[in-house]
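Incident log, structure service

09:12 report received: a user says their structure output differs between two submissions of the same chain.
09:20 pulled the input from the user's history:
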Amino acid sequence: MSTAGHEPIYRFDVVLHPRPPATMVAGEQADAWGLWPILAVPRDGLVATFEVGFDDVLTALDRLPRLVTEPDGAILWAAADAEQAWQIDGTLAERDGRALAAELKGSCPAAAFDQVLEAFGWPRMPVMLQLVRSGVFVDEATFRRHATARGSHPAR
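09:34 re-ran on a clean worker, output below:
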């Protein structure tokens, strides 16, 4: 939840993917936090990899304070004791030595999520995210609104 002096906290359960060029908005999906535009992903869109290598993503993530990675792609990042409580758990997948996708679950400030995205080549490389609960894909801006709404109303 957001409190005075703190930026809003994202709450999420998503799979991060590179966004294929032919992806477009194709309808809406309602859930407990609102009505969201969803993406139609080309059939071959889910096998596309990020432009960065799997090991390069792990190396970039290892540079973040308190973020722990494992060679198999597991990640864990938690706030420092003096900060507002948050934590990200994740698992990276690879294909042909490149990062394919990342399952990310938890909560964090937007700036922390941006640091995770940067390890995958964002903002140069556009991303899309699959909302795990509903199984739909959304663009980055929609994800941010959704994660903020979930962070504001986590009990839903």
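09:41 both user submissions now match this output. Likely a transient worker issue. Closing.
09:42 reviewer note: The longest helix spans residues 140-152. The chain has one domain: 9-152.
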